[in-house]
Write a structure and sequence with these properties.
The chain has 8 helices and 7 strands, in the order βαβαβαβαβαβααβα. By secondary structure, it is α/β, with parallel strands linked by helices. The protein has a 7-stranded mixed sheet, with helices on both faces. The longest helix has 22 residues, at about 215-235. The radius of gyration is 17 Å and the shape is globular.
Length: about 250
């Protein structure tokens, strides 16, 4: 609890057996997390069996791999059903340090922001932390374009470390979003569409063999998807297209 708000950490998992317990231990070491929800997206390793041994953890399984976006949809739906006031997504591959949970939760609990991101770009140490040069360059390019089209000033749109308020998730049309990786980009565009400012905290970059990462070809598809989302946003803002991703607001 923080300011009498229930904090739930959600973990979208896929073949995370090697790093899950370490991530969980770091999460619970922060002492403000009330519950962990792990959604397994058809893992072929021991992710589920390990998750079921972790105290105060709700484990939900997709019977087959449905995609990263579909996994997040299940995570947020379950967290809301469990009464979460603040929902923080932490990848179980330990790429993002759980030590930022108190800071991110505090920014939401205080009412300053409805969404907070752990940014790998703030602080300027992304490359020193092991981010591949091609990934860094594409991140900066896409972020520049997205800021121009969406009218925001985020340092990056592509971090997987995110915290949300309950009220924010309840009003977003998440079911209209993709079941694939582009879900990450769509939800941030929707938050900006609804008029919210997104907070950011600097997050150390950690790249290692067990850390999950999409392939170069999937990254190209993701990048093109980000550009499409930005274009749809701008066209919807100009009333030139109608899309359920960005519904007309009252």
């Amino acid at each position: 609890m923080l300011n009498d708000k229930k904090i739930i950490v959600v973990m979208p998992a896929y073949n995370a057996a090697h790093t899950l317990r370490m991530t969980y231990d770091e999460v619970m070491a922060q002492r403000i997390v009330d519950q962990v929800i792990l959604v397994d997206d058809g893992s072929k390793d021991e992710t589920v069996s390990i998750a079921k041994t972790l105290p105060n953890t709700l484990v939900y399984q997709h019977q087959h791999n449905m995609g990263y976006g579909a996994n997040q949809k299940s995570c947020y739906e379950l967290a809301l059903k469990e009464g979460a006031d603040i929902i923080i997504m932490v990848h179980p591959d330990c790429q993002y340090t759980p030590k930022l949970i108190p800071a991110m939760a505090s920014l939401i609990a205080s009412g300053l922001y409805e969404c907070v991101l752990g940014s790998r770009i703030l602080g300027g140490n992304a490359l020193k932390g092991g981010m591949p040069v091609w990934r860094y360059v594409s991140n900066r390019f896409l972020t520049l374009v997205e800021n121009l089209f969406l009218g925001a000033k985020l340092s990056e749109y592509h971090t997987g470390y995110r915290a949300f308020s309950r009220s924010l998730l309840e009003q977003l049309p998440l079911k209209e979003n993709s079941d694939d990786f582009i879900f990450d980009n769509q939800i941030l565009a929707q938050i900006i569409w609804h008029g919210y400012t997104i907070g950011e905290v600097s997050c150390p970059t950690r790249y290692f063999d067990e850390a999950s990462s999409i392939s170069f070809s999937r990254s190209i598809t993701y990048g093109l998807g980000c550009l499409k989302v930005s274009l749809l946003y701008r066209l919807a803002e100009m009333n030139m297209v109608s899309t359920p991703l960005f519904p007309k607001l009252p």
